[in-house]
Amino acid sequence: MKTKQAPLPHLRQAFLEWYHATTLGQILQTIEASFLQGSLNPTYNQKILQVDQLGCENLYIHEPFIQNFFLVGREQSPGPYVRHIIRANPEALPVASETIDILILPHVIDFEFNRHQILHEVERVLKPNGRLFILSLNPWSVRGIIQYLPRRSSFWRPNFISSYRLLEWLSLLKFDAEFSAAFSIASSKVIQKPDSVFSKSRANLSFAFGIKAIKRTYTLIPIQPKWISTPGLVPGHMFETSE
Q: Which pLDDT tens digit goes with each residue over 126-180?
């Protein structure tokens, strides 16, 4: 008899418990927060939206920007640091279109059913040239490769999304996206923008990765047809005779 699979939001809760309670989870938490802290760089008038709580927001959202930081998700627990909490479905964000400057998806795509709809919502609420930051678990990590062993982590899924597929999805939504960092819990390091063969191989086997993307808008410029004028045929002058 097959056992009933836990709903994906419950798997994310299991991930967060591992994230905060275990040594490896805390290593990942620290290096991911370091990546966000060095990458967000908001200005004072920019609105920051994060979908689903991570529990370490104080490590990458500085005090002057708390007033413009909004947290939205199904089950958010109020804390002393986060002041704006919205309980809502990530697939239908209660946010006006093109009003958000920076949006953070921290391990949301990993544990949601309708990933495409969430990304469509992200594209909708971001302003033109708004920035998107995604943290995601890597299905090709060593832990991912041995996922079918009996002692795998309770939150690990066989269908996590690879960075390559995620970049393809973002491209279809007209984002300029890049694989920005890989997070190695074995070495406690962030592999920034891997470009060499060695760094790429390490990144491909890292436990998690980070993607940066910018929402682009393309305006179609109408091209006016340029007609080539031809000499008119004037009656009575079609043939000329010489005297």
A: 999 999 999 999 988 866 555 544 455 678 776 789 999 999 999 999 999 999 9
Q: How many H helices and E strands in the chain?
A: 6, 8
Of the candidates 54, 66, 63, the one whose C-alpha atom is nearest the C-alpha of residue 26 is 54
Residues 6+ away with beta carbon under 8 Å from 210: 32, 35, 36, 39, 133, 134, 135, 136, 180, 181, 182, 183
In a domain, 2, yes or no: no
Q: Which residue has the tokens 């984002």?
A: 175
Which domain range does residue 128 map to?
8-215
For the whole prediction, is pTM greater than 0.85? no
Number of domains in the chain: 1
* CA atoms within 13 A of residue 61's CA, in its CB half-sphere: 24
**Residue 71 belongs to a domain with what CATH number?**
3.40.50.150
